[in-house]
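Q: Protein A?
A:
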Amino acid sequence: MQLEAYKRYETRDPETAEAEVAKLLSPGHLVVRAEDRPRFAALASLADTGPVGIGFMRYGAATTIERRASSPYVGVAIPLTGHMKVWLDGRPAEVRAGASMAVIGANDPLRFEWAEGCDVLVLRVSTAFLASTARAFRDDELPLPARSAHRVFSLARGHALCSAASLLVETLGRYRSTADVPRGLLHLLAEHACSALLLGLAQEGPTTARRPHAAPSDAVRSAIRLIDEERAAELNVGELARHVGVSVRALELGFRRALDETPHQYMVRTRLRKAHRDLLAADVRDGRTVTEIAARWGFFHPGRFAARYQAVYGVAPSTSLRSPTA
């Protein structure tokens, strides 16, 4: 099972499962046909960061879920095995492992049919967090669509969202509890997942012919200063834009005009330099590790960090860590 340390329930009783699902997602009615009850075996895990949660769910037998009340979350269901159906405007749409995912709005009534053998990765984002993060993305040329309606995406189209969910599983799965995860890391993971969801939803919005404006030079200078003064990886591009009072798109255009690179590229380059500095200054006798230092600066995948580091500095990060302090 994914996220074993975060198991919330395991039961063969549909009534118990219905009550537990209400705690994790939203109240609803769970229906299992009499002939399917012997195979019913519900199991769920959820790693909850607060604004964002990532979990794993299965029911074993064919199961129907109907939600009539609104939810405080927008959800994403990514089948890992098997398939399910979700009703869109009164018509069923199939969501199949390896092919598609379903985005579940917060307000519309919901009807899900899980096929037998369907295991699902579930991402949930609180509507309050979604709304606050969306403010940084508001741009005249990129109006966001209403987020109450359910929809089905192909995996190709929802690639960024899948990657964000996978990163949550991979990173939080290393810990026994979210209380053990560094707060800065939790914050970055939540912002990343929320931004990926917003950008996926925004692809459906209409566009206008109005040309976006680049951020003024003082906003770009302020953003550069915030990145340079970070003591750990705490900001993402959306937050950076909010801090300097411009949209993400405007900040990207401003950075390209001033530095010929995006804010993200400048952020990664600066953090890599700081990780290099920390590796050279660290004392292995104090228990410092490459993984710890890399995570501090937002590099959560050790293999990718090592490859990026070697490409820039010509040595493995472990070699820098063992080097005498200059």
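Q: Protein B?
A:
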Amino acid sequence: MSDELSPEMLEEAKPDLLTLEDEDGQEVTFEVIDATEVNGTRYLAVIPYQEDPASLQEDAELILMRIGTDDEGEYMDIVDDDEELLTVGKVFEERLRAMYDIDDSELD
């Protein structure tokens, strides 16, 4: 069985939510848009979660997170290395274009 999610599965499923604690100790909830592995490392594409669909912003910032492990278990970091961000961003861009059937001609 594949770990990949089909567009139909994503549309039918409830949002996959992830709540993390930021540097200030505040809980922040994200909606997981996609997950994949690049060069042996697992990544998530997330956006800040909005409970009310009417408040969703079309230009919501997509955040790429790396999943790693250490002596204490799994952890997540925001991808901030420019080269890694470019590489992983391209993979997610291709995947999300296919998932949501985005055509360049539809973009402003």
